[in-house]
Structures are given as C-alpha cells and as structure tokens.
Amino acid sequence: MEFDRVDRARVMVVGCGALGNEVLKNLVLSGVRKFILVDMDVVEAGNLTRSVMYRAEDVGRRKVDAAADWITSFRQGIEVTTIFGDVAHDVGINHVRSVDVVVGCVDSRWARYCINRLAFRAGKAWVDGGIAGMMGTCRVFRWNENCYACSLGTDEMSELRRRMPCSGVIRRSIEAGHAPTSAVAASVIGAVQAQETLKIICGETDMCGRMFSYDGESLKAAFVDFEAWDDGCPAHEKWEPVADYRINRQMTVAEVIERLNGGFELRDDCFVDYIVSRKDDTKYEVMCPGRMVERAFETDCRLAGELLSGYYQHEYRTIDGCFPYVSLTLAQLGIPDNDLLCTTDGQYVLIN
Predict the structure, then answer these.
(1) Nearest-5° Cα angle at 86, 61 to 43
(2) Which residues make Cβ contacts (< 8 Å) with residue 66, sequence separation at least 6?
(3) Helix axis angle, 18-29 relative to 63-74, nearest 10°?
(4) pTM for the full predicted model
(5) Cβ contacts of 217 within 8 Å, gap of 6 or more
(6) Which residues pair with 264 in a beta bridge?
(7) Low-confidence ranges of the chain (pLDDT < 50)
(8) Quick one: 157 exposed, middle or buried, by C-beta within 10 A (0-12, 13-18, 19+)?
(9) Where are the alpha helices (DSSP H) in 161-263?
C-alpha cells in the first residue's frame, strides 16, 4: 500500500450507522486523515449495541457529529467535514469532486441510487456495503465499468423511493424482539469496504464488477460476478467541465441569471409555489422545494385532516427570465452548498 497516497487521501462516508462506524474506524487505523461524513439521523439507544463510536451520552446527537468527535479524539491530525442531511438533496457535487472515493453505508436502494448518481457526476468510484442480520455484501462501482442503477431489475427500480432510515429499521426489529443487524457482519463488511477503499486510493482494486458476499450463519464467503452497464442509463452523466462564475447560494435568482446571461435547471428536484385542491381548485401557497411540500402540507392548520393525494402541485424545474420569484436565493430554491448548477445551455457552474 502506498502510504503517501493514503495520507493525502480524502474519503466521503455516507451513512454513520454500524457499517459506517466500522469503515471509519478501519480507515483511521489505516492512516486516512481527511473525511466528509454524511448522515441525516441522530443516535438512538438501539445504535449503542452495534456502533463502536457511540456512547449513551450521544443519544439524541447527530450521528455525523458524534462520529466526527470519536475519530478526531482517536487520532491527532484528522480533518472532518460533516453534512447533516439527505444524500439525495443535501450533498453538493463539488464535495464529491473533492474526494478520492465515496463509501456507501446506507440501507435503502434510493440512497444507493443517489450515491451512484453523485459519484458518477463527479467521476468518482464508490464502494457499496450492505448488511442484514448475519449476512452482508460489498461491491465497487466505477464510471464506464459498473453501475448500481444498471444492476437493478424492473421491480427494484419501482421501489427506489421506498426509503426506510436505519432508525426505523432498528425500532421495528427491536419491537419484534430481535436485533436488526449483527455487529459481527458489520465488522466483516466494513473491513472489506475499507480495504477496497484503500485499494482504490492506490489504484489497485479488482472488485469492480464483482460482489463479495458473506453469510455469517453458515460461515461462508463467496465472490459473484455482478457487472452491469447500459449505455442508455441516465445515471451515467458526468458533470464536466466545470466553469466558475463566482456564484454563491446567497445570491438571488435575478443576480444568478444576470451573471450567467441565462437560466438554469433544477435537475433533481423542483420548486413549488402552490398546491391546488383537486376537489374545488382552492390554492394554498407553500413556496418550497418539492421535497419539502409534504412537510409544509402537514404543518398547515388549514389542511388538517386532508390528504396530500387530493392536491396537485404547481412547480418549476427551469429557472430563467420567466420565473416569477427572482428575489429568492439559490438556498431558498433548495440548492445545497458546494453544488453545481446545470445551465439551460448545457454548462456546469460551480457554486462557491
């Protein structure tokens, strides 16, 4: 292993549960000193028996913060950036461009799909791990070789948006009287993920297109060929080259359009100004990104007892001179820090 490369490397770890804990522990022990941690959950009591980094006093804290504290106290010279949010919408592509490899330690197909999309847009390889009970798998995906989205069947694609966070899995499993994951399985798969991450950093991985499978119940491990690449897959687009127009999230839409001399697209979400009742065409203003409409609906006292399915939303995906709310900032449109804008004329523009 080339220790200079490892010492200089930066790794993004998405998911700071049992698997993420094991990956981080092993990478820190191996000499990696720069990390970006991504997670949207807080530490719960059920995490304590499966996650090496968390203590009772961490219950209620953000996982990214508790994990960052653990690794920085474990070894001096560790640099950590934390992103408390959803990998689908809160991770700017430029964060991904700044790392050598992305490690996915998540528990849903949708989260994996989003990691795959981000990694490919940034031109980075990523290492996927998954555990269930005493079993686990590890795979490597890299642009133009192996794609997570291409590996999904029709039924799996239709279920992509059925996201259940780790905390929900844990609660349901505890209520059923059994542990949702094995700490040993997390240790095994986390170790394999960390090893493959180090190999990618050093340019040595041979796991792309193969799946490592571990069965703790029968104590068996195997490799399975698992390569998938469909040239027509929409998840393959690389966002490059990148232009710098000195744009930031606090700039208004009007300022951005003037600087770009044109508009831009909201590629992964939309902006919703109002929803309309299917029953009587009554309008209710929401003024938020599409992903936040459900929350806005649930907290509006005028809509108590109503179902969101009884309404349709009025949305914008292209932001240009016809957009009526040009005083809104990029942050208010839901664009994350360190992201890239896709302009209407096909450029990719850095958000500083």
Answers:
(1) 20
(2) 16, 43, 53, 54, 58
(3) 20
(4) 0.91
(5) 133, 134, 135
(6) 319, 343
(7) 163-174, 176-179
(8) exposed
(9) 166-175, 183-201, 253-260
